[in-house]
Amino acid sequence: MTGGYELDVSTREDVPAWLVYGTPVLTVLGALAVSGVALLALGVDPVGAYETMFVGTLTTEFGVSQTLLRAVPLVLTGLAVYLPLRAGLWNIGAEGQLYLGAIVGTWIGLNVDAPGVVLVPLACLGGAVAGGLWGLIPGLLRARRGVNEIIVTLMLTFVGVELAGYLVRGPMRGGQGNFPVSAVLPDAAQLPSLGPVHVGVVVALLATVAIRLLVGQTVTGYEITVTGSNPDAAERAGVDVEWVYVFVLVAGGALAGLAGAIEIMGIQERLRPDFSPGYGFTAIPVALLGRNGAFRVLLAGLFFAVLVVGGSSMELAYDVPAALVEVIQALVILFLITAEFFKRYRISVESVDRTTPAAPEGT
Amino acid sequence: MVGLAAGIIDATVRAATPLILASLGEIISERGGVLNLGVEGMMLVGALCGFATTFTTGSPWIGFAVGTLAGAAMATIHAVLCISLKADQVISGVMLTLLGTGLTTYFGQEWVSKSIDGFETVAVPVVGDALVGLPLVGPALFENTPTDYLALALVPAVGYLLFRTSLGLEITAVGENPEAADTMGVPVFAVRYLCVILGGAFAGAAGAHLSLAFSKLWVTGMTAGRGWIAIALVIFAQWRPWRALVGAYLFGGIEAFVLRSQALDPTVTGIPLAETIDGVVSLLLRPQVMSMYPYLATVVVLVLATRRVLDEQVGAPSALLDNYSRETE
Amino acid sequence: MPPAESDAYLGLSGIRKEFPGVVANDDVDLTVRRGEIHALLGENGAGKSTLMKVLYGLYEPDAGTITLDGEPVVLDSPQDAIAHGIGMVHQHFMLVDRLTVAENVVLGDRSEGSPEPESGPLASLATVPGLGGLVDALTLDLTYPRDRIRAVAEEYGIDVDPDAPVRELDVGGRQRVEILKTLYRDVDLLVLDEPTAVLAPAQAERLFETLRDLAEAGITVIFITHKLEEVTAVADRVTVLRDGKRVDTVPAPEVTENDLARMMVGRDVLFDVDRPAANVGDPVLSATELETTDHRGVEVLSGVDLTVRAGEVVGVAGVSGNGQTDLAESLVGVADPDAGQVSVDGRDLTGTDPRAFAEAGVSYVPEDRLADATAPDLSVLHNLMLKDYRADCRRGRLDYDGAAERARQLVEEFDVRGGRDVRETPAGDLSGGNLQKLVLARELGRDPEVLVAHQPTRGVDVGAVEFLRSAVLDRRSDGTGVVLISEDIDEVFALSDRILVLSDGAFVAETTPGEADPETVGLWMGGEATPEDAPAETAAGATARPDGGEE
């Protein structure tokens, strides 16, 4: 038998402070560094590109207002993933709930004749209800039948997207010619603007505060948190875990549905089958970055919005595809989950001498 | 009408191939206990790498091999994160899809609108030339690209691997009860790595087939959700290769039908409620409505399977989504 | 070092294994002779299973050496153990339900144990150098294994069908497959971890016969148990473990069950808790004719009656696996019994939910505090609120400040060390004993009418044990009725006013600490002669006799 080295993996009892606070910064820097290689590969100077992306976006009024507008659906869908995640459930179907909200919001905007003061809140409410119902299905299936919510939310996403595709080609078609789009919303159904942004920014902010209060200050929030940490203990202590599961998926769906209605009324002005560039999927990394609190979801949503807006500027300035932003987003999360491991475990290399076990003494 | 039907059958066979390949890979991965939601991303990477390699070397076979390896490489990331670093399988998978989409859109731009010869269709040896002439199914069954045949051949191969080999036993064991497998001396981590990487290779092959045989073009986002369909298909097929083949033809058939169904508008006459039935039938045959069927069918199968899973030999591998580590108190 | 023995086959020396907060094995020596049946006896938590998992390569010991036939060996993984001829039948069966018996048996051995080259489409490739391993991996020929399984089964009188799917087997059948798995690999040393825990008496008798046959065939058997009768029934020698340490190794025929009980329990009273006389009031919790079944439909509790009065502690002594969990969960509303009633303070709460029980004043300390009683990654405050958080609701807001104030008092009062920062410290950071204090603080701090405590001091350090027991007795003085379900005879004697012995889903004896001695109760727990056979010790006025009592 020979000596050698082996990796010793042990659970950390205390996580050093530098790891706790340094991790988000390090993961973002790491993702930017690796993506920098991709920029170099296309012959672009990464420093200049990142300067355009971040400095350019954050120092111009146009950049800031675009960031805020982009952040609205990201924050709302981020919350739609965040809330079920608090209860230990994966809602990876925020995209579908967003589409349902957009469909119903558009329908109300087009078909209800009312002044904007009534119509806009009504369409928002309709969108939230539609998204909530889309979340009710996986919620009930999970609570009552134990059906895995990951797959059901995912499948219903595609159903929602196809539904929008059908509607704008069928009952809701309203574009000129044969384009699969709905009619343009009347003025009364357009979100009121607040300077360069629309009122959806305020809604996203209020939703964040509301979720923060819900989770941090209410009985329901306490039940969600305990269920997410240990559903068995929660149930033994008298928490109605089934109800919690239904609640978080319905509430999450409602937030995503609200995002859909707002996106249509504030930006798109009509329903298109491909109006979302995947907000509901980007919501997953947003919720993950912000999983320790609703305000962190807000910050993560803003950060991802900066990336998206900055990516477009970079595309214009350097003629490189803005899709690099998706690479950065994915890398941030992949590095983050790698870092999680090193937070949980201490890795050390030990030299092992296989010959040590002494022969038994005496005979 | 015969021409249309033959066209749809032919298109079904073609649409089924990437679904067969990707879902076979996902079956292997999930049977080993690891859910891979990164299939879509791995397919895209496989498609682009395969296309670029074929364009450069002129050989679709080299391209296909490189695309397959590219999928395996992406899956290796998933394996390291989920098996060694015990990361959440859902997060890692979704992020790999995002990464694959981003990378291929970014690096793929310069390949858009280039064209390659790709794989040519070939008749089945010996009997093919005689049978291609058969009405309706002739071309669909006996004149395809090599990768179509490969996908078909891999169905029994994967079935053999899973159910007729020692390795297959070990795969089932680490997916069902990794602790038991460990006590029997099965190298749990190694087997899981193998399953995930093999699964990624199949996804890469599925993507390479798309760009080299199906469209012979690189188009941004060309997988168009087929990776997600493959994941649905695995549940629909209840983790069995042969059922995945049947499911792939069903789902592929829907895809083929959707592309052509504008030409189809059956009308019912002469019975009561004819108009209502007409309306319902034509609604159910609308392309976008039909596109929902695979997803809805998957949810239905999942709900039914969840109910029966305790007493039947179907259902998800018991240890799916569980990351194994030996020494916990 | 143990005295060296010329015929020693397996030697463990100085084995130490620590888990966070617990020393599971403390410098344990064990010598086993070839061909003997060696019993490893001890209470739950004495360190028996840990020691055997070290032997099987599942746990890496912190110190100590292992020798086989005098040669030091390193066992880093089950593969190593298997290679050295060690087989283990685990307490929780290690079987893959979806596979057949034969498939489970050959799992992990890619050549299926067959000495013949394999047949099949790939077999010819095996002659190519370097491809043998690949061919082994990619073939599976169960012809030889089937024959061999039948042969082995016949040789040792084990009844199994190689082609039966494992999921269709009952516990006895599963266990036979487990033993067969090891025999198939030609083990020299077979370790069985509590093999009879899940078996009915007739099945156990059959197992013993098999073990005797194995020993006669020269296989060394180590057999973990806490049942005294089994030691005298089959073992040649017995090693007793207590609190992670070896007490002694003795020839089984030369000791009585009383000797073993004394060694196992340790007669020096460790904890002398002051127990004032009971001041018993009206019944607060009563259960009648409770019946439960497990998920396979096998009866677990068969008609149990139990009445607890205010201010008394009723100890339910028994070896785990005899219905304890079902009893505890039925009494607190977590599980619905198939038949029978549970009333609290005279109110029938059968079929309601845990919340109704909690609101009626029932507190519960589950056996597994990490899995069932706490949310380890949440704060001490969150965990302390878990039972009565609704009471902290002020106009829709949860009053965390008020709750934190009370939490700090509870932490102080129950001496939960390491939990002073109630809002920030995650409960999972507390040691086992302090986590249990936290659970008890939560359950007792609400002045419950009833406390159902299941193994409240299991795996807890010595200092905490005394504190926890005093806390239970204090609450008893304040009029709480307590059900203490425990395997720890000392604990039952130290705390109980009445003692009921639970065996095989029914109460088989009732006594008081004054009437019976721990050895006797230990014998009853082990299924030995009960008061039915020796009625002198039976208490009058039992409310918990299996035959209905006086309710």
Query: Judging from the principal axes of the Cα atoms, what is the shape of chain B?
Result: globular
Radius of gyration of chain B: 21 Å
Q: Kindly identify the CATH topology of chain B.
A: ABC transporter involved in vitamin B12 uptake, BtuC
Helices and strands of chain C: which structural class?
alpha/beta
How much helical structure, as a percent, in the residues of chain C? 25-40%
What do the pLDDT scores of chain C average to? Answer: 83
Q: What's the architecture of chain B in CATH terms?
A: Orthogonal Bundle
Strand order of the largest sheet of chain C: 6-7-8-3-9-10
Mass-distribution shape of chain C: globular
Rounded mean pLDDT score of chain B = 87
Which terms summarize this structure?
heterotrimer, A: 363 residues, mainly alpha, two-stranded antiparallel ribbon, 13 helices, 4 strands, 70% helix, B: 329 residues, ABC transporter involved in vitamin B12 uptake, BtuC, two-stranded antiparallel sheet, 2 strands, 1% strand
Report on this structure.
The complex is a heterotrimer of chains A (363), B (329) and C (551). Mean pLDDT of chain A is 89; it is low at 352-363. Chain A has a domain at 75-286. Chain A contains 13 helices and 4 strands. Chain A has helices at residues 17-41, 46-59, 61-86, 94-111, 116-145, 149-169, 200-217, 219-229, 231-236, 241-268, 279-289, 294-318, 324-344, and strands at residues 4-11, 193-194, 197-198, 345-352. Chain A has 363 residues and is mostly helical. In chain A, helix 3 (61-86) packs across helix 8, helix 3 packs across helix 11 and helix 8 (219-229) packs across helix 10 (241-268). With 329 residues, chain B is mainly alpha-helical. Chain B has a two-stranded antiparallel ribbon with strand order 1-2. Chain B has one domain (2-310): ABC transporter involved in vitamin B12 uptake, BtuC. Chain C is of the alpha/beta class. Chain C contains 18 helices and 22 strands. In chain C, the strands form 5 sheets. Chain C has a 6-stranded mixed sheet with strand order 6-7-8-3-9-10, sandwiched between helices. Chain C has a 6-stranded mixed sheet with strand order 16-19-20-13-21-22, with helices on both faces. In chain C, helix 9 crosses helix 18 and helix 15 runs parallel beside helix 16 (462-477). Chain C starts with 7 loop residues before the first strand and ends in a 26-residue tail after the last helix. Mean pLDDT of chain C is 83; it is low at 1-5, 267-271 and 533-551. Chains in contact: A-B, A-C, B-C. The interface between A and B is large, with 46 and 43 residues.
